Amino acid sequence: MAALDNVKLKTLLSDVASGVLQLPDFQRDWKWDDDRIRAIIATVTLDYPMGVAMTLETGGSSPFRARPLTGAEAVETGEPHLLLLDGQQRLTSLFQALYVTDSPVLTTNARGNAVRRWYYVDIEKATGASADRDESIVSVPEDRVLRADFARRVVHDLTNTKGECGAGLFPLRIVFDTQRVNAWRREYEKTDEERNFDLWSRFEDQVLEPVRSFQVPMIKLAASTSMDAVCAVFERVNTGGVPLNVFELLTATYAGDRGYTDRVGDYYDLSTAWRTVKENLTTRHPALGRPEVDLDDGLSSSDFLQAVALVRTWQRKQQDPGVGVSCKRRDLLELPLTDFEALAPVLEEAFGWVGGFLRSQCIVRTADLPYRTQLVPLAAIRAILGEEADDATAKEKITQWYWCGVFGEMYSGSTETRFTRDVEQLVGWIRNGESAPDTVNDAYFFPDRLVTLKTRNSAAYKGIYALLIKQGAVDWHYTDAPLAPGRLEEYGVDVRQIFSRGWLRRNLDDSYPANSIVNKTPLSLRAAQALTGAPAAYLESLAAGADMRPEWFEDVIATHLIDPKALRGNDYVKFFETRAAQLEELVYQAMGKRTTVVNGIPDAEADR
């Protein structure tokens, strides 16, 4: 599978220039700054180890779309023989600094600003103590003029060989060009023949020869290495610190699909295809994400691929019962482009249906989405069932399954196995009347959980917020109709605290926490601005603002499952206890079951 070899640096850089060695398209861009480039050059001149490079043999036919390393783009490149998996930053830096003779290196300075630099070595410093080698590597501006006194005074003009030799600064861009090195040496020795002859001899032995003979240990993975293994290896050896995801690997794989290229005349761009899908979906369904913030905000590319894999493996299982429904990384990496092309429109429609389902549950913003991951099996189920999912009984079962997943917090841990079970079990439950899915049967919600639901970090917290809107909560400022999905953004609706924390701190102990979901409800920004001081006081102003009699306004309060008399009486204990009981009932209605504890063991009884 793999072989270890030592390859001369000059050979590797020549392969970069000729296109024999290229990058798989999933590699990120080169990004080293000026200081790191100087450091890697010093390492090479000292013949110190710079780490192992890793490549993948292509066998003459790259499994991925390939691209040249930065700096080699102008070279007419053919099919690569090797793809560089690890070592991009090091080899790109050395290629530009030591091999490219006609253009400076585009890098960044210590402030992160883009700069162009040439790299030189100070001959006298380099032939001194090895500890000074880092200082001997000199970074020179694009115009090859070194200045001092805030750029007012020219220290060295390196625009020609004479100036370089006079400064004793050797241009590293010619280090592998023997003819140019010899011409430079002759000019250098003329400046002080007796002194410089001896200095050059030491420089050649101590600096130039180590660079010319420098060897890079390189692991070559065989062309037969599976993509799953390539992905795993890359994640383990990638020294850039940015993990590779399956989407990027598939992007490069699909771009290298010769069948598609032969058929269409161009390469398949998975990134563009995904952007189109995501923008189409989120234009209609904002709960699925905000691509203007981040393309993977909300519904991610990996979520979409997993849903495709679930449907593909489900379809294959219908033909061959020995095939398992799955969406593990291996399944995604083995997803043929032809199958993806066929299923992507189906899943796009399915996720559009999911967006509509979320809206029907009063979930319209990404921030209010309880579990993003639960959308994956939901979309797969819609794709498999098609219009069957719109049947009233099917919709009821899907809704129960959804809220059991949320309030049972079933999607808080590892999800791939649950994806598989939910797809198969929910389809069987709807189509064939089989037993309810494990997500329904195993979901429990304990009343004391209400006390600990305090932030949006909890799916159940977001779930209660959505259910309060769904069951008909009326805003305390815009009282003309119940809150609805189309009004949430317009009114600035969010989770608002009912009894203010300051009032509770002054009047009660913390037996019933102020920041529990029990003491919060969905209200508009205008209503929230009035919630200061004691409830008895702000209810009067809210009722007056709504031009309602106090007893009528109590009906508005009750739509939030709040005891109006407890609120008007500033009775936080009664308010908390009565509202917790009503929220508990609201959750159980959504789950279609209630949780009881028998001899310390939770037991769920389905509502009849």
In words, what does this structure look like?
The structure is a single chain. By secondary structure, the chain is an alpha+beta fold. Helix content is about 50%, strand content about 15%. It has 28 helices and 16 strands. The strands form five sheets. It has a six-stranded mixed β-sheet. Strands 6, 7, 8 and 11 form a four-stranded antiparallel β-sheet that branches. The chain has a two-stranded antiparallel ribbon with strand order 9-10. Helix 13 (about 300-320) packs across helix 16, helix 15 crosses helix 16 and helix 17 packs antiparallel against helix 18. The protein starts with a strand and ends with a strand. The model has no long low-confidence stretch (mean pLDDT about 90).
Mean pLDDT: 89
Shape field: elongated
Poorly predicted runs: none
Strand order of the largest sheet: 1-12-3-5-2-4
**What share of the residues does DSSP label as strand, in percent?**
5-15%
Radius of gyration: 33 Å
Would you kindly provide a brief summary of this structure?
By secondary structure, this protein is α+β, with helices and mostly antiparallel strands. It is built from 28 helices and 16 strands.
Keywords:
608 residues, alpha+beta, six-stranded mixed sheet, 28 helices, 16 strands, 13% strand
Describe the protein's topology.
Elements lengths: L1 E7 H10 L2 E4 L9 H12 L7 E5 L8 E2 L14 E5 L1 H11 L6 E4 L5 E9 H4 L6 H4 E5 L3 E4 L4 E5 L3 H7 L1 E3 L6 H14 L1 H21 L1 E7 L5 H11 L8 H10 L2 H7 L5 H15 L16 H19 L9 H5 L3 H24 L14 H11 L6 H16 L8 H17 L5 H4 L7 H4 L6 H12 L17 H4 L2 E4 L3 H7 L12 E4 L1 H4 L6 H11 L4 H9 L5 H5 L3 H20 L1 E6 L2 E6 L2
Parallel strand pairs: 2-5, 3-12
Antiparallel strand pairs: 1-12, 2-4, 3-5, 6-7, 7-8, 7-11, 9-10, 13-14, 15-16
